Prior knowledge:
The complex is a heterodimer. Chain A is mostly helical. Chain A contains three helices and no strands. Chain B has one domain (2-95).
Amino acid sequence: MFETAAAALLATLALALARACMGPSVFDRIQAANTIGTVVVLLLAVIGFMGGRPEFLDLALVYGFLNVVGTIVILKFFRYGSLGDPGEEEAG
Amino acid sequence: MSAAVDALSWAFLVAGGVFCVVGAVGLLRMPDFYTRVHAASVTETLGAGLVLAGLMLQAGPTLVCVKLALIGLLILFTSPTATHALTRAAMVRGLKPMLDDGGGRPSKQS
């Protein structure tokens, strides 16, 4: 039962990776990275269930947080061209 | 574990997997960045929701189920935020959506 879900998630991972490689604009790649992050969270949960190890869910939760923060940081870099000097006011 | 809950969680898991794949195929086949964002959100909302629901049924009313609910809550709140920031950053950087102005062309890095 978990194998089918894990196989589907792996297929999604491969397709998202293909979009990450082909993506014309950098934002397609960031979107693919975001999707890969979410799929990895699900994969961690499913593998935790397959292996009978509930600690994987904590890993999945932390990974979900890191994925979102990473996406927001990359977006800030590509939107403002730099991550901003400390203390300099953010232009709108 | 009654067979009904098992069958139901199996159905949820398979449906979640199917929606994940459908979202990823949409991510590949959509012509434009903004349509791909919609396709990717199918994976994040429905795919993740169904897979987590299937796992919750499998786990029963234990701490594991609470952790799965927390993961679902996390995805529910953070993925729209990230998608909004992503789309807004793309728009600000001048990535034009492919509108139906006669010969629509796929989005290019401007």
